Amino acid sequence: MADEYIDTGRRKTAVASVRMRKGTGKVDVNGREFKDYFPLELQRATAMAPLTQNNLEKEFDLVIRVKGGGIEGQATAIRLGIARVLVQLNQDLRHGLKEVGYLTRDSRMKERKKYGQKGARKRFQFSKR
């Protein structure tokens, strides 16, 4: 068994790199404490959901680097990264994580602005006269 597992999670423009090693449950996000980085309990619960589901919160230390996107997108990117690392660690967890949707990458991205238009779909106002 390797002593450290690394994987990546993505959501919109947020990218999270998750490093997991045996420990006591300490979580470090971009050099800050987990509770400082994610002030809302809902965001913390979203990010740690794969560990909570398998009762592994206190068994691993996490070092997470995340950039891009907003705070919610980053939390979801971290969730995917943690789920992928858990599957590397133990293939038996894959079915449970996949069933709940933690291993599915949310591929929805912002649609690009088209030339000659005001936005992705919105047009400039039409003037008949």
UniProtKB/TrEMBL annotation:
Nucleus among keywords: no
GO cellular component: a single term: cytosolic small ribosomal subunit
One Gene Ontology molecular-function label: RNA binding
Signal peptide interval: none
InterPro entries hit by this protein: Ribosomal_Su5_D2-typ_SF, Ribosomal_uS9, Ribosomal_uS9_bac/plastid, Ribosomal_uS9_CS, Ribsml_uS5_D2-typ_fold_subgr
Region Disordered, annotated ranges: 108-129
Keywords: Ribonucleoprotein, Ribosomal protein
GO biological process, one term: translation
Biased composition (Basic residues): 110-129
Transmembrane segments: none
Pfam name, any one: Ribosomal_S9
Assigned protein family: Belongs to the universal ribosomal protein uS9 family.
HAMAP family, A to Z: Ribosomal_uS9_B
Protein name: Small ribosomal subunit protein uS9
Source organism of the structure: Estrella lausannensis
Gene symbol of the encoding locus: rpsI
